[in-house]
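# step 3/5: fold
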Amino acid sequence: MVAQTIRLLGAGGWSLATCESLTGGGIGAAITSVPGASAVFRGGLITYASDLKATLAGVDAEFIAKHGVINERTAKQMAIGAARNCRSDIGLSCTGVAGPDGEDGETPGTVWLGLALPARWDDRVRARLLTLAGDRGQVRAQTIAAALSWLNQCLSETAPNDDSAIPVE
């Protein structure tokens, strides 16, 4: 699956950055385990602590204070922040509860993925809710697999003939 991710990114001429919470860099590690990753993977942010989602990824701190970090808006802002801060075309994020305890009123296995695609792509900032089962390790592994699978699915869709990056300003 990761080799397909690298092929799809390369074929589109796109670069990728990640912003990860519950996976602690697992998505980036999976990507960099495959030869050729350096041609498409810019890097990633690990924003495990809630405050780092604001300071490193640019998630609205007031929103976090009111609503927590396990939600659609946070996932989308994390993806945008990854792309902007790493100067990549695409940002991929995950935020959620690996377990065994809940967080922000959410149960273990509740995960949001975020994806920020190039600027002229229809519906360019997306989010997806996952409800996963299993222990902490299983939830983390399923999150990594689901994030990469979703990215591959989105990259396989017909996109405009435009590879412009997300504005950095």
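# step 4/5: annotate
Confidence is low (pLDDT under 50) at residues 162-169.
# step 5/5: archive (pending)
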